[in-house]
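User: Hi! I'm working on a homework problem where we have to compare a predicted structure to a textbook description. Could you give me the structure for the chain below?
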Amino acid sequence: MDSTITLAFLVTLVSIISPVITSVINKSYDLKVRTAELKKESLSVSYNRMYETFKQFLTDSSVVILRFDSERKPTISEFKMFESSCLSCFLFLNEGERKAFQDFRILIKMKMGYDDPRPKSFLELTFGSALYPSRSILKAISGSSGDELFVSFNKCISIANQKLDKVTQEESQLLSPIRKAHRFSIPIHLKPLQDRNKKDTEE
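Assistant: Happy to help. Predicted structure tokens:
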């Protein structure tokens, strides 16, 4: 008799507790899913902003480089657009990456006829430009400025692609634990910046 009462009590208790536990688990899962969705949306917005910024930089840089390659100077408007798009990239770069973009920007400015704005060495400051010509003059004499320009440009493009890759990897890591539930689609990213820009150009 006692065992029957005990069993009935346990069954009743389980029938009461089970829905509560199930509800808590479901709500916890839904919360995790919603949090992941919000993070995914944030990453997508960040990726799109970053991609459009780097794409504009690639376009404007290509214009000025092609001008120099054909032995013509870019127009003032083209140069200003390059300056603006290059500086816009700084928002997404760390200190080391900014230096690479800044070095490329300075090379373009020097090709435009501006002096090198970087701090001069102690010897240059001490003995003056008569004994130590500016970097722009030395590069013009050596004839290496063109190659250096392309190397610097390619370095910037490599950095841009690495930054875009990193966002995509973060998105994949975010979605992987719950992708089995088929709640999310495969991430919409990423092709290298050059490939996506080529596709956009063809369209």
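For your comparison, note the following. The radius of gyration is 29 Å. Residues 36-202 form one domain. Good luck with the assignment!
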